[in-house]
Amino acid sequence: MNDVIEKALPFEEDAGAADATIRTDWTRAEISALFDLPFNDLLWQAQKVHRAHHDPNAVQLSTLLSIKTGGCAENCGYCSQSASFDTDVKAEKLKAVDEVLEAARAAKASGSERFCMGAAWRSPKDRDMNVIVAMIEGVRAMGLETCMTLGMLSDEQTERLAEAGLDYYNHNIDSSPEYYEKVVSTRTFDDRLDTLARVRKSGINVCSGGIVGMGESRTDRIGFIHALATLPEHPGSVPINALVPIEGTPLGDMLKDVPAPIDDIEFIRTVAVARIAMPGAVVRLSAGRESMSETTQALCFLAGANSIFTGNRLLTTGNAGTDADAGLFRKLGLATSVKWPRDRG
Ligand code: SAM
Ligand code: DTB
Ligand code: SF4
Fold first, then answer.
1. Where are the alpha helices (DSSP H) in 184-231?
2. Per residue in 278-330, pLDDT tens?
3. Pocket perturbation via mutation, ligand 2, pick of 170, 206, 271, 291 by most ligand atoms within 8 A of CB
4. What single DSSP character describes residue 184?
5. Which of 12, 178, 202, 257 has the fewest CB atoms within 10 Å distance of its CB?
6. Which ligand is in closest contact with the Cα of 89?
7. Architecture of domain 29-329 in CATH?
């Protein structure tokens, strides 16, 4: 093992139980060395870290609902919902609270533990906040964890979400700081960090991750994990999306003739490195599962992913579907009821 790799590992190579120390002082060289490990060693280290912090045979189910679709003022190059691109998605109004609560009830009945609500906004309007708060309170009252993703937040808006009892706020950094500016020009990487800082300060759990397969390089994937793992606190959950290429978006059009914008093994490596760098986080295998083989998904779970979005839809695109997920979980002997370390005594 070379010096850089050895230094990158937060535990002894042959340790029986991994010393999966939580650190926020990772260097890019250390993250890079993890990516460079032989695949079997990387998965072994990821599995050791995973088992030190999480139930190894449980994967949390979340359900996603678009509460406000399309017409977004931002120009994220991957997104079907930007008003800047000509896609099949039409702009809609903010959904009514009852409709959202109905969907949450169905999600709970199908076994989901977390209900995530997404809006195609640059940032919420203050006039929408009462409706948003009513959605959070209604979903919480059903005993579901709540997550919202509404774009950039002001201090006041963040406080209102915290007072309403919001459990998680999703706000992705999406890629490395360097690649981010190639993908979006209507806001900056620092804008994203500012909202994340507000959320963290308010006590709401941070959910932040990004997208792999946007044409970025390995160096960008290193920068992406490094940026997350060196935040003042690791996000409580880290969604790793595989790009869903959408016709009419700059990235969808650029990558439409590329058979596999991200190699499966490189995707699994990214999940494993996220697991090792952020041992306590719930790593969510998010968009892109519809076109992922069962084998790739199984290897992602082995690499430390322990949450998925279930159901037939994400925000505007299809998803693997509840039946397919139930079949896969049966084959893998996975439980959906997550026992976190604090519950295991
Ligand atoms: N407007 C809010 C925002 O951008 O923060 C919330 C909704 S936005 C759709 C949430 C996240 O979904 C994005 O940050 C991105 O990581 C992911 N996403 C959007 N379109 C995607 C696609 N085509 N493929 C994979 N992930 C995607
Ligand atoms: C996240 O990281 N992935 C989810 C959730 N956060 C909001 C969104 C995935 C969207 C996939 C494309 C679509 O359905 O429009
Ligand atoms: Fe808007 Fe979010 Fe889509 Fe960007 S990712 S265009 S902010 S909905």
1. 189-202, 218-229
2. 999 999 999 999 989 999 999 999 999 999 999 889 999 999 888 888 899 99
3. 170
4. -
5. 257
6. 2
7. Alpha-Beta Barrel (3.20)
Each residue of 209-240: pLDDT tens digit? 999 999 999 999 999 999 999 999 999 999 99
Residues constituting the chain: 345
Dist. CA 315 → ligand 2 center (Å): 6
pTM of the model: 0.92
Say if residues 196 and 208 touch (Cβ distance below 8 Å). Answer: yes
Closest residue by Cα to atom 11, ligand 1, is 172
pLDDT at residue 180 above 90? yes
Could you tell me the distance, in angstroms and rounded to a whole number, from the CA of residue 80 to the centre of ligand 1?
Answer: 9
Residue 331 tokens, joined: 């084959």
Domain boundaries, the chain: 29-329
Task: Please identify every residue annotated as catalytic.
Answer: 72, 76, 79, 116, 147, 207, 284
Who's near 183: CB < 8 A, 6+ residues apart?
76, 77, 78, 174, 175, 214, 251
Q: Tokens 């042959």: give the residue.
A: 14
Q: Is 275 helix (H, G, I), strand (E, B) or coil?
A: helix
